[in-house]
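Lab notebook page, bench 4
Experiment: in silico fold of construct C2
Operator: M.H.
Input chain length: 252 residues
Purpose: comparison with the prior construct
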Amino acid sequence: MRFDIFTLFPEVFKPYLETSILYRAIQSSLLQVELHNIRDWTTDRHHVTDDAPYGGGGGMVMKAEPVFKAVEAVFGSPPASPVILLTPQGRVLTQEVVKELSSLPRLGLLCGHYEGVDERIREHLVSDEISIGDYVLTGGELPALILVDALTRLIPGALGDPDGAQDDSHASGLLEYPHYTRPAEFRGWRVPEVLLSGNHASITRWRRNQALARTRQRRPDLLKRFLLSTADREFLENLIKESDPLDAEESK
């Protein structure tokens, strides 16, 4: 999978791209990331990429011309591949969106900055807008890295464990079950016996139940759209009875 990232601050990306899973994916030719400095497509001596907004107001706005030139120089006109603007006004990034985008062989990522971008960029250049949450950051560089990281995890062969991405929180629709490693006892706290039993069927069911319990406790909204099996429903019903018998009676 290839990413072409258009940014004013390409130096932000290199340390993260040269670390851990992303670095190994790049070294294995599973991932390609090309950084494009938008300032390279300016024509003035100071490489200015922003200007004051028409109508007044605080802050500066990224100019349309250098952004259009940068994207069209790489992707053509109109762009031959999807170009995503990272912005708090976009659709919120979820694992479902990550799965949707993972089918694409190449993506352009445009990092907004300052007060935002000239509206003509939204209207005539980008094909999608994505937000990583309901808050505001200084620029789109961190969201772009998050998107690259999330998508890389779905590239076959990028993770050491071929099933690792499937077990992650939100990948299945549930939060992930608890993990333990050696030693079996630490400061008097023991690893659950089922994980030491060697009974893989019991371990699988325990992990599923723990994921259900954790999701119910921390993100009950996720259960509303998750397809539960009969065993899942029975476990949750018993969990409700144990935690609050009154709620269990009212839910019947």
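Observations: The first strand starts at residue 2 and ends at 7. Strands lie at 2-7, 32-37, 50-51, 61-62, 83-92, 106-111, 128-131, 185-186, 189-190.
Next step: discuss at group meeting.
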